[in-house]
Amino acid sequence: MDLRNIAIIAHVDHGKTTLVDELLKQSGTFRENQATTERAMDSNDLERERGITILAKATSVEWKGTRINIVDTPGHADFGGEVERILSMVDGVVLLVDAAEGPMPQTKFVTSKALALGLRPIVVLNKVDKPDAEPDRALDECFDLFANLGADDDQLDFPAMYASGRSGWADMELDGPREDLSALFDLIVEHVPAPKQVEDRDKPFRMLATTLGADPFIGRLLTGRVESGTLKAGQTIHALSREGDRIEQFRCTKILAFRGLQQQPIDVAEAGDIVSIAGMSKATVADTLADTSIDVPLPAQPIDPPTITVTFGINDSPLAGRDGKKVQSRVIRDRLMKEAETNVAIKISDTPGGEAFEVAGRGELQMGVLIENMRREGFELSISRPQVLFQEIDGERHEPVEEVTIDVDDEYSGAVIEKITGTRKGELVEMKQSGAGKTRIIAHVPSRGLIGYHGEFLTDTRGTGVMNRVFHEWAPYKGAIPGRRAGVLISMEDGVSVAYAIFNLEDRGKFFIGAQEQVYQGMIIGEHSRDNDLEVNPLKGKKLTNVRASGTDEAVRLTTPVRMSLEEAIAYIDNDELVEVTPNSIRLRKRYLDPHERKRQARAAG
């Protein structure tokens, strides 16, 4: 059977997973009466809740005698480690762009990786049936993007289609019949080249492992594209590291191929196909699985370095151990090491005391997803404020700079520009009208300046602004950036909060807790209206007397407390504060540092 391997690239919320649903349906992958779920490729609970793709996943469809392997790539740059490996398995990409928004920063990030690998793009302008769609403008922006990213002449001569993933149609013309996706299937088969590995079926077997998974019955599974030769179930092969060292020799117990949404056992894997292999115990991502006669590994795609680091520690607050079952540092370390094995974009290192662990990654969202998964598994953790990683380049200190794209109502653009180019040391690159009373601002801002900015940004734009960010480059250190301006309200007692006490403290600032909540000494319960920290007593009840007078017993009405999400809490805290994460709660607290530690953190923050 003819083969085609493609990846689908799209920004968050541009309709990628919905389009894959329709491709699966219209190719006859599902039976007529089969029950199917919406966004079938989003298998992870967090993916469904947040509407983003976190893990790269493969599926396959058959169309007129050709098998098309489709890889669904993450839409957010924080999960770019997945993308960089996945693109080495495919020969073409379908770039899905919202016809109203045009290409966005995350699209740019993944597309630059795809073009650098020489992959041939197909542009699909999605959601053209929306009232605010401007497909011609979006298509021009795609061409400009490709040209800016250094695409060659073949890549610039890309075919474009107009589509609506939700309605299940795609046409070469904007006013086409709008019936089904057959035109897209035909274009993929015609435009994307067949895997060149097919010609190497007579050579010894070689495969580069790109994703690692586990099955409760089969064990460890490595997925990748067979680069040459064929592999039979039961054959003995070995694993080579990137440096060419032999890791282990093992018998391939099972070969699984992607058939629709399921993985089915097959007897023989042939060059060009994407398969999963079982039987190994040590081999991992970026290792080469090969015939025992091969001793030279395949080149592995380099992975961009991490840009931020967060300290994961045990939860040592007075309320520790009440919610979670996994609280020891040894258990936390084992879980983090397991994560680092499957996710090549993060690095784990021990701190000097051994009680906490430095986790380096791409961004706050990636860290938030890891912490959220751990708390759902029953872990209790304390999390520090993210710190930016610096690099020494030619003896000079460099820091990561991100490209920030902001869509905001015209009336708020001044406040946004003032913040990002003033205190946060950003540089304005472009500012233009994007229609419907909105302005698009593009700026290069140090990663340090963006930590904790998102909440402030939503306040400045009254919740209407949209901000997207992607790593741009390493640039010379830009000097000190001031942190959070407001101080915090700290509980000075242990116990249960009282409505009367909070009511009388409300003029001091906004609260993060309500009445009848467990608090302890040192816990942050609100934000002070001034720039200094203030210790308050949220347990102080009303003094009772035996005299009743009119007007003294007014009803206590509390303002609704501010409830932070996990990412907001991590971005909000200062260097001397921690986020306490348990399966049921997210709390903030003070960390009283010794003087040496305070000096070290001040130096690191510049």
Characteristic terms for this protein:
nine-stranded antiparallel beta sheet; Elongation Factor Tu (Ef-tu), domain 3; 36 strands; Rossmann fold; alpha+beta; 15 helices; Alpha-Beta Plaits
Description:
With 606 residues, the protein is of the alpha+beta class. The chain has four domains: 2-194, Rossmann fold (3-Layer(aba) Sandwich); 198-291, Elongation Factor Tu (Ef-tu), domain 3, CATH 2.40.30.10; 391-476, 2-Layer Sandwich (Alpha-Beta Plaits); 484-543 and 558-573, bipa protein (OB fold (Dihydrolipoamide Acetyltransferase, E2P), Beta Barrel), CATH 2.40.50. The chain has 15 helices and 36 strands. Strands 19, 20, 21, 22, 23, 29, 31, 33, 34, 35 and 36 form an eleven-stranded mixed β-sheet that branches. Strands 8, 9, 10, 12, 13, 14, 15, 17 and 18 form a nine-stranded antiparallel β-sheet that branches. A hairpin with a 2-residue loop joins strand 26 and strand 27. Helix 9 (364-376) crosses helix 14 (566-572). The mean pLDDT is 83.
Query: How many independent structural domains?
Result: 4
The CATH topology of the largest domain comes to Rossmann fold
Q: Report helical residue fraction.
A: 10-25%
Rg over CA atoms = 27 Å
CATH class of the largest domain: Alpha Beta
The overall pLDDT average reads 83
Subunit arrangement of the protein: single chain
Overall number of strands: 36
